[in-house]
């Protein structure tokens, strides 16, 4: 099924790339956008991680879920060899993930991790109010969430899982074989396969022609560009500065995570220029927000009110207000209007104050101290989330 850049002349596409954040990404990255490579990438709209899918069929679909999980955990932590009594599909998958690619640069991984930690809570604001919220505007990208009824699970649980993965993948040495970030990448890969196979089996309304395969490789690429390129752009908007090495480090870190997740290597960008050019092509097949997008966006906004981390109602309302301010500040007005983000007063005050504080903090506090503090603060937020979601039937 050859696919066309069907929304390239649509108002939402043009305004994003000509006047909105898309234009800022082009300026930020020096990208030269065009459709000349469209066919090279568009085939991945119907491409999935067959290796992961086969493991799910051979392990998860033949055993009790907790037994299958225990078996996979054992492989992740101890490795798999040809001699092991494991299914061929498992040997094949681990042969890939245990092979460290020639291009991997450990110094760059370290720089990328340091920027994630050093940016402290700005990292978490960026992930939530730009990367995640902005992603909801691409309505086909969200179809797997709708199909697997993620809304019923609730935003608290979903944020907790995303945060758990992100924090564990962005620490020192997190992506070494058998380490915590490596483990999260493999588990996430298999969760994607499990979800995809379940959608194919149970969700009869899936529209492959328009939406692509569920959790297809092209959508995966776009998601990981969210964690790298869009994340960097957001940090910059909030007044953070970063070195060329740190910027390359973030892209390199997510390129390797993408490799572990089974995204084809030729789709993983090496730098922000490539990332922007790849992202441009992908957005041309995505229509703007629909009613599911709005539900997802509002579920994320209301997470602050539902989440019992803060004791008092006024604190929760205030937190929701601050996230709304950041969302308006980081995303295009048109996107916010499509997602029906509420209008609030003085919405630029908090982001502008943040930029001002970042400028001063940058000068006064050493890089090492900021990395240590950021790591500690981010782990504390994660710990609070895990406490809530683990100790209750929160979803």
Question: What does this molecule look like?
Answer:
This protein is an all-alpha fold. The protein has one domain (11-47, 106-171, 208-390). It is built from 21 helices and no strands. It has helices at residues 11-18, 21-29, 38-42, 50-60, 65-78, 88-97, 106-118, 120-135, 143-147, 150-153, 155-169, 180-202, 208-211, 217-237, 244-260, 272-283, 291-306, 313-330, 333-338, 349-364, 367-390. The longest helix is centred in the last third of the chain and has 24 residues, at 367-390. The two termini are 38 Å apart. The mean pLDDT is 96.
> In the residues, how many domains can be counted?
1
The helix content is 55-70%
Order of helices and strands: HHHHHHHHHHHHHHHHHHHHH
Largest β sheet strand count, sense and barrel closure: none
Number of helices: 21
What number is the mean pLDDT? 96
Distance between the termini: 38 Å
Shape: globular
| Total number of strands | 0
Low-confidence parts: none
CA radius of gyration: 20 Å
Share of residues in strands: under 5%
Structural class estimated from helices and strands? mainly alpha
